[in-house]
Amino acid sequence: KKDKDSETDVIGFINKFVKLKPSEAKELRKKLTELNLMRLKQENIAKIIDLLPENQEELNKIFVDASLEEDEIKKILDAVKEYR
Known about the structure:
Elements: H1 2-17, H2 22-34, H3 42-51, H4 56-62, H5 70-81
Helix pairs in contact: 2-3
């Protein structure tokens, strides 16, 4: 009984942080990759999928080593919007 409870606790904990189904994450990764933005690296895409930023401030926290142009920010946030 105890093992089952702890397994349920772990699954519940993970579900608090996992916002997308694997198929949705794959879809979003494809959309972000297809934007063909020079500054958008695979590790940035992974963080965007994890965090689903809602605004420029949240997005800029992901890009600590590069600054994005206004049109790049808009494209990324538009792609993410439908998955929030």
